[in-house]
Design goal:
single chain, Alpha/beta knot, Trp Operon Repressor, Chain A, binds S-adenosyl-L-homocysteine
Amino acid sequence: MRIDIITIFPEMFEGPFTESIIKRAVNKGIAQLHLHNLRDFSTDKNKKVDDYAFSGGAGMVMMIEPIDRCISVLKSERSYDEVIYMSPDGELLTQTICNNLSLHQNLIILCGHYKGIDERIREHLITKEISIGDYVLSGGELGAAVLTDSIIRLIPGVLNDETSALSDSFQSGLVSPPVYTRPRKYKNWSVPDILISGDERKINDWKLDQAISRTKERRPGMMDSGKNIQE
Ligand code: SAH
């Protein structure tokens, strides 16, 4: 999969994209991540990419032209499955969206800043708008990093144990059961006996019970939505 990210702060991706799972995916050649500095597509001598909002009011707006030029160049090189704009009023990011996007070949992610981008870009160039939550960030970069991470880890071959992504929270409509590691006893805190019993069937039943009760407690809406495998 190839993801092209359009941003005015490409350096913001250095940490998230050069460590851990994403780094491994890139090194294995499974993911190709390309950062495009929007200022490189500005024809202005000061590399300006924002301007005052019509109607006044506080805050600058990202201009159409540099964004259109950047997207046009990318589209002239290959076809894209989605041109995504990170936006607080976009579709709330869920595991289902991540699963669907992970099946694509080429994605563009546009990061906004200031008051956002000129609405005409959203009308004419954007095919999908994604929010990472009902709160406002200063820019789309952190959201784009979250989105990229959540997609890339789902591509077969990225995680060591390919089944591990399938047993994560939300994949079966349930959150994950609790997990433990050694030591078996720390201070007075012990591991549930069942997990050391060696009885695989009982352990699996216990994990499922835990996942169901946790989901009811922490994400009751998920149980009501009927998305989980129990119904
Ligand atoms: N004026 C806008 C907020 C702009 S915030 C409004 O009130 O809706 C600047 C940029 O940060 C946005 O263009 C968007 O790209 C990004 N952003 C902010 N919050 C976000 C969120 N919750 N999810 C994804 N992107 C977000």
